[in-house]
Each structure stands twice: as structure tokens, then as C-alpha cells.
Design a protein that fits this description.
single chain; 571 residues; alpha+beta; 2 domains; two-stranded antiparallel sheet; 17 helices; elongated; membrane; Macrolide_Exporter_MacB; ABC transporter permease
Length: 571
């Protein structure tokens, strides 16, 4: 009976009912779109790396070391003492190979594999091969050229990591960077392409497979060099060249292959240079780890050799568990576990997360305004129906029944508005979310570009870069695998994604604002924020709560009225 009366009343008061349905429809559509965006962003954050391999490294936490050393003191003497203490602490903090393997054992089944490289410095020998980076000025064994940076910790991705958090790398007199690789996986992580010959045999086996000289003695060591190095020194596959270690011992290498670095390196110096090893990767000599050990240049033997140890994990969740496992195994706060894969992914979905925050704010505002509007409309409706309610109660209908009818009327129009609003929201959620995300991405790109321009003015002192040439320079400086000058300047590709895992791999590459100058960030530019049952359920719950809230206010007002007084006032 209550439902029948409510339905007839709703049909009789068509104008008011239609207005109420429109309000509920608009609120529902906004709620559905907001919830769809929030769920897509949350799913992207939690499951985006669920099925993707993630690499991790352990490096020194310099900020924590300086803090522990009391580097924040204001007194000049204290500050100087704290700096000395911090430098001394950092100089002794390079992890050994056994330390890295200890944390690998602690991770257990979380790891899919591990690989590492060790990096030492070599100097040029008079009359022998010259380094590319200082070929115009060096000719002797004491030549250093621009190789002071050689061996500095590189930060390229999760590939070669931070050199294990070494405290300074090789000595500043190094002309060449000698890299020993533990496995083919370590070689693949360098992002190089063999242009002639073959890749060097990697590994840590005690048996060094190197080239024999004419007398049958193993006196030369197989190595790979860059095309630039080979061309400068007139060398080709099968030729030999000589370099010296820090003690002056001469080492003869046989070139088994030449290569180019992905992203075109040719002399990018400093941390994060192309190739990920720091210094000029044009002067990088690649050998097996066994060769490096046989030369006495491994980290266990030489204090000037740095280690880059990489842990390969199955997913982002495994990465979080790995961080905890390292902490449980005794890794102090002076070190930190990092993953460029996780950081790059989080950077790529940053516009989406910002959009999710906006959607959350919109949801709260819409629900709050909707509640106020519905309560006001309910009170207005009750005030215009006081005589009707007085007649119904005078005819013997209990006031609770009248109040219940008012609530049912509100619920009926709410359900109609819910159905219409859900349909509209389902249709609009994807294009609206992508349009809003496009705006967020554009804003992030503009901010990043401005930061790159600011860096350019500060570092170069000339006209602000920012055009295609600027983007090309940034791409070349970053040395990241797959980033070319053209794509940095004009890529229009977009990343498509579903609600569970956005694919940022095809997104346009733009200068990132969270890293060094020239770092590229591939933003997720599209998201399939489709409506699912969870979205519909939450939207229905929100709308019904609003309807019941408005109805509850109506109940309170109905129960306040006295039917005889209503009729008396009417007469």
C-alpha cells in the first residue's frame, strides 16, 4: 500500500519528480565518473607492476650518513668535523660481493636472478691505444684527460645501479673503464649492440677463456670496445692493444667485438652517462668477471674497484618484500634499496594519481552539495504538501506511514536517477577521464620542460633551450635505452591502459622533473577508466544514502506536524 501510494504520488507530481530525477542523475553520473577514475588509478598503483620484472640495487644513503655524522651543526668547527666524519664514513661503506650475496640469500624465492659487474680504472700506455675522451691531449701513461669521472657511480636505471654505493670510484688518473661482467644478463643490461665480431664471453668461472698468442701462451685477454675507440686507434676485431693498471702493470687485450651503446653515447661523462657506468662509455672496455679476477682487479683484491650488484625480482610486490627482507637481514639506514623500474613507473602514473586526487575532491564536493540540495528540495516539498498530509492523517493513516511514504517516494526517484546516471557515467567515464588526464599530462610536461629550460640557463648561461635541439641534447645526455633525439623532441605516441595496469611503455617521452637534467619520463597518457560492478555498487550505495538522508529529514518534519492543527490552519 505504501509503495502504491508513493508511486501514484510520484506520477501525480510530475514536475517535481522530474526535477528530482535530474538532480539524482547528475549526482550519480559525477559519482560514477569520479569512482571510475579513482579505481583505475588505485589499480594502476597497486597492480601495474604485478606481472612485470623489477630490478633493484642497494646503494649508500648519503643523506643518512651525513645526518648520522652530525652534519647539520651550525658551529664552523663542528661543521668541519662533521664533514670529515661523514667523508670518512662514506669512504669505508662500499659493500663487498659477499655482502650483496648475503642480501640475495635473505631474499630467497623473491629473486628471479642476480647479476653484477665490477669496474676498475686503467691508464693509457705511451705509444699504445689512446682514450677517446682525451685523445687530443693524452699520449702517455700518466694521461688523465677527462677521465676523472671515469668509474664514478652511474645511475642508469636498475641495470648497473649505483656501483654499490662506492665512495668515489677509481682514481682520477684512469683513462679507460674496465668492466667485468658476471653473466650474459649483466651484458644485456648495458643496452649495447654488437656491430662487429661477437660479444665477449661473460662469467665468473675460474677458467679464463682468452685468446692465445703465437706461442700458445694465454697472455692476452678477450675484450669488447666501442666503435669510436676502435676507429680512433685504427683497430679492428682480432687486433690487440695495451693498457696499464694503477700499479703500472701492462695488460694486453684482444678485441673480439666492437659495439655501440643504445642511445648513442660517444663521450658522455659523469654520473648517469650513457651506458650507465659513469665516465665516458666510449672508453669502456668490457671483459668477463673471470678476466677481471685473473688480473687482480676485482673488488676483493683492489680497493679502487667498485661493484654494481643488481637483483631481479618478479614484481613490484616482490620489490616491497625484498626491501623488508634486506632490513630484516641487517641492512642499516646508511644504505637504501632502490629500483629505477618502480621509480619510473611511479613517475609515469603521477598525472593519473593527481587526477585521482582531483576525482576524490570532486566526489566529496558533489556528495556534499547533493545532500544539501536534496534536503532543501525535500523540505520544500513537505511544506507544500502539509494539507495533503493532514488529510491523510485525519483519515486514520498513522504519521509513521505518511513519513514512510515520503521516504519511498524519494527512493523511487533516486533509483530512476541512479539507473540513468549510471548509464551516462558509464558512457562518459572513459572519454572524460582521458580528457582530464590529457590536461594533467600537459601540465606535467610543461612543468618538466620549464625545469629543463631553467637548468639550461643556469648551467650554460646562454639562451634557454627548450626546442627540438634542447630535447635532443637531453636525450643524448640521459643515455637511457631507447631514447633518441627525435623521439624526445616530437614523439606523439600514447600509452593505452586498462583499469588494472596502464602501459606506460608507449607513452610520449618528456623531460622528467624528478631526476637530473635530461632525464626522460614516459607518462601514462590514456586510461581505460571503465565502469564495473564495484563502481556501480559504490555509486548505488552513495545515492541511496543521500536519498535516505533526505527522507530522514522529511520524516522528522512530518512527525512534527499535528493533523488537526494542519486542517485548522487550512480552514
Amino acid at each position: 500500500m505504501i509503495f502504491d501510494n508513493a508511486w501514484r504520488s510520484t506520477r501525480r507530481r510530475k514536475g517535481y519528480s522530474i526535477l528530482l530525477i535530474v538532480v539524482f542523475t547528475i549526482i550519480t553520473a559525477a559519482v560514477v565518473v569520479s569512482l571510475a577514475i579513482m579505481q583505475a588509478a588505485n589499480s594502476a598503483k597497486t597492480t601495474g607492476l604485478a606481472n612485470q620484472t623489477v630490478t633493484a640495487t642497494i646503494s649508500m644513503n648519503r643523506s643518512q650518513v651525513i645526518k648520522d655524522a652530525g652534519g647539520t651543526g651550525t658551529d664552523t668547527t663542528d661543521s668541519s668535523s662533521a664533514r670529515d666524519a661523514a667523508r670518512e664514513a662514506m669512504s669505508d661503506m662500499q659493500l663487498s660481493l659477499s655482502d650483496y650475496e648475503t642480501y640475495a640469500s635473505a631474499a630467497g624465492s623473491l629473486l628471479k636472478s642476480t647479476y653484477y659487474s665490477e669496474t676498475a680504472g686503467l691508464t693509457a700506455v705511451d705509444g699504445q691505444a689512446e682514450p677517446v675522451s682525451s685523445s687530443s691531449s693524452s699520449s702517455g701513461s700518466g694521461s688523465s684527460g677527462d677521465s676523472a669521472a671515469a668509474g664514478q657511480p652511474g645511475g642508469q636505471g636498475g641495470d648497473m645501479g649505483d656501483m654499490g654505493g662506492g665512495a668515489g670510484g677509481m682514481a682520477s688518473s684512469s683513462d679507460f673503464t674496465l668492466v667485468g661482467l658476471s653473466s650474459d644478463e649483466a651484458l644485456s643490461s648495458l643496452g649495447i649492440t654488437v656491430s662487429d665480431g661477437q660479444a665477449v664471453v661473460t662469467g665468473t668461472s675460474g677458467t679464463v677463456t682468452d685468446s692465445d698468442d703465437s706461442d700458445g701462451d694465454t697472455s692476452t685477454h678477450d675484450a669488447m670496445v666501442t666503435d669510436e675507440f676502435a676507429e680512433l686507434n685504427g683497430l679492428s676485431v682480432g687486433d690487440t692493444f695495451v693498457a696499464a693498471d694503477s700499479s703500472g702493470n701492462q695488460i694486453t687485450f684482444t678485441i673480439v667485438g666492437t659495439y655501440t651503446s643504445t642511445g648513442g653515447d660517444s663521450g658522455s661523462a659523469g654520473p648517469g652517462g650513457a651506458g650507465g657506468m659513469g665516465g665516458s662509455s666510449s672508453d669502456r672496455i668490457i671483459v668477463s668477471m673471470a678476466t677481471l679476477t685473473s688480473l687482480g682487479l676485482d673488488a676483493d683484491t683492489s680497493s679502487d674497484t667498485t661493484i654494481s650488484y643488481t637483483y631481479v625480482l618478479g614484481s613490484g610486490a616482490d620489490y616491497d618484500a625484498f626491501v623488508q627482507a634486506c632490513s630484516d637481514a641487517g641492512l642499516s639506514d646508511s644504505y637504501q634499496v632502490q629500483s629505477s623500474d618502480v621509480e619510473n613507473y611511479e613517475n609515469s602514473i603521477e598525472p593519473l594519481l593527481n587526477l585521482s586526487k582531483f576525482a576524490k575532491t570532486l566526489l566529496v564536493v558533489v556528495l556534499a552539495l547533493g545532500a544539501v540540495m536534496l534536503i532543501a528540495m525535500t523540505l520544500f516539498s513537505i511544506r507544500t504538501r502539509t494539507y495533503e498530509m493532514g488529510v491523510m492523517t485525519a483519515m486514520g493513516m498513522h504519521k509513521r506511514t505518511v513519513a514512510a511514504q515520503m521516504v519511498v517516494e524519494t527512493v523511487i526517484v533516486a533509483v530512476i536517477g541512479l539507473v540513468l546516471g549510471t548509464c551516462i557515467g558509464a558512457v562518459a567515464s572513459v572519454p572524460v577521464s582521458n580528457k582530464l588526464l590529457e590536461s594533467e599530462v600537459s601540465s606535467a610536461q610543461a612543468e618538466s620542460t620549464q625545469q629543463v629550460r631553467n637548468f639550461g640557463r643556469e648551467l650554460k648561461g646562454g639562451a634557454a633551450p627548450g626546442g627540438a635541439s634542447s630535447a635532443s641534447a637531453s636525450a643524448s645526455a640521459s643515455g637511457e635505452a631507447g631514447a633518441s633525439s627525435d623521439s624526445a623532441a616530437s614523439s606523439d605516441a600514447t600509452a593505452s591502459s586498462d583499469a588494472s595496469a596502464p602501459d606506460s611503455g608507449a607513452a610520449p617521452q618528456q623531460p622528467g622533473g624528478n631526476g637530473p637534467m635530461g632525464r626522460m619520463t614516459s607518462y601514462v597518457s590514456t586510461v581505460n577508466a571503465s565502469v564495473n560492478l564495484a563502481t556501480v555498487g559504490l555509486a548505488a550505495l552513495a545515492i541511496l544514502v543521500l536519498a535516505l538522508l533526505a527522507g530522514l529529514v522529511g520524516v522528522i518534519w512530518v512527525l512534527r506536524y499535528e493533523p488537526l492543527q494542519i486542517l485548522a490552519d487550512r480552514s
